[in-house]
Amino acid sequence: MPAKKLKFEDAMGRLQEIVSRLESGEAPLEEAMALFEEGAKLSALCYNTLDRAQLKVTELAALPPEEEDND
Fold it and tell me: Is a pLDDT exceeding 80 seen at residue 24?
C-alpha cells in the first residue's frame, strides 16, 4: 500500500513492525535495506502528519473566543 494513502495510525503500526524486524537482526542485508527505506518514508509521513496537526492546533488555539449571547 502506498505510504501516502496510509492513515497515521497504520503508518505508525507498520513502522513499529519494521523497527522490530530490524532490531531482531534476522533480516538479510537486502531485506534490511528495503525495510530501512520503507521505514524512512513512513517516518517522514508521520512527522509531516504530526507537523500539520500541531499547526492546526496552534491555529485553533489562537482564535479569539466566541462571544456569548446573554439574551
Answer: yes
